[in-house]
Structures are given as structure tokens and as C-alpha cells.
Amino acid sequence: MTTPNTTQPPRRSWPYVVVAITVLAIQQGWNAQQVTTLAVSLLVLVALITSAGRGND
């Protein structure tokens, strides 16, 4: 009896998180420079987390 392969690749939700936080900042009235700084900071953070999660690849 075989079992189905339940291991699925992890779902990448980072882009949705970055967009959601950026949209919330815009809705709260942040100016363009603040939103740009926030978005860049979030993307750098995601890049660092992603590269650290890869280990020795």
C-alpha cells in the first residue's frame, strides 16, 4: 500500500506580505519617500531571509 506524497514545496507568500504592508502604508497617508523606503527595506529583508534559509546551496 503506497501513501501519497504529502511533501509539497513551501508556498512563497512573501510577495503578498510586501504588497499588503505597502498598501496599508499608502492608505495610512505615508508620503512617497516613506513608502519607497519601506518597500525597499522589506524587499531587502526578504532577500536576506531567503538567502539564509537556503543554507549551503
Give a verbal description of the structure.
The chain is an all-alpha fold. Helices cover 63% and strands 0% of the residues. It has two helices and no strands. It has helices at 14-27, 32-53. The longest helix has 22 residues, at 32-53. It is elongated and about 55 Å long. The termini are far apart. The mean pLDDT is 84.
Features:
57 residues, 0% strand, mainly alpha, elongated
Question: What is the gist of this entry?
Answer:
By secondary structure, this protein is mainly alpha-helical. The protein is built from two helices and no strands. The radius of gyration is 17 Å and the shape is elongated.
Question: Pairing-aware structural class of the strands and helices?
Answer: mainly alpha
- Strand percent estimate: under 5%
Question: What is the H/E order?
Answer: HH
Helix run count: 2
The whole-number mean of residue pLDDT values reads 84
Main sheet overview: none
Q: Which regions have little confidence, pLDDT < 50, spanning 5+ residues?
A: none
Gyration radius (Cα, Å) is 17 Å
What is the helix content? 55-70%
Terminal Cα span = 35 Å
The total strand number stands at: 0
The coarse overall form would be: elongated
Reconstruct the topology from this structure.
Elements: H1 14-27, H2 32-53
Helix pairs in contact: 1-2
